[in-house]
Design brief:
The protein contains six helices and five strands, in the order αααββααβαββ. With 153 residues, the chain is of the alpha+beta class. The N and C termini lie far apart (45 Å).
């Protein structure tokens, strides 16, 4: 473990990932870390990496609506632009995937799915689960529950 004064942001995230994700084979040593704070820090770090690599996010033309992360394996980022002329997903991925590849490299090869945020939860959930073929999405607002139907394979 590296002492805080010598830590780079990347070192800190790797340490946080070890706390959050013990299934990577790392021993969890929480010490002074609180699990929820470590999780928030990891999500914040992904947001900041995206802001750094994607000028449209930094300038506020594209908004990150949410970030979900399984450290070391995959992140899902929902993006949105109120400007109809801007493709938020295409802008984040970049030509030939260059922009998102820089973020992937910073996260040691972690996969990143960039999806377009939608106000309609059915559309949003279906796009978050791509490439799976979705037959139906049943939303129960009162219970804050969604049931997704996929074909048997």
């Amino acid at each position: 473990m590296i002492k805080p004064p010598e830590q780079t942001a990347k070192d800190l995230v790797l340490e946080v990932d070890n706390i959050i994700n013990p299934k990577k084979g790392n021993k969890v040593n929480k010490g002074n870390w609180d699990y929820e704070k470590a999780r928030e820090l990891a999500l914040f770090f992904v947001r900041k990496l995206l802001e750094f690599e994607i000028p449209e996010i930094y300038e506020g033309v594209i908004e990150i609506k949410s970030v979900s992360r399984d450290p070391g394996y995959r992140s899902k980022v929902a993006v949105y632009s109120p400007d109809q002329n801007i493709d938020p997903v295409g802008s984040c991925v970049g030509q030939k995937g260059v922009r998102i590849q820089n973020v992937i490299n910073e996260l040691n090869g972690e996969k990143i799915d960039v999806i377009e945020w939608n106000e309609d939860p059915s559309i949003y959930i279906a796009s978050a689960l791509l490439p799976a073929k979705i037959l139906a999405v049943d939303i129960k607002d009162e219970e804050k529950f969604a049931q997704v139907v996929v074909p048997d394979d």
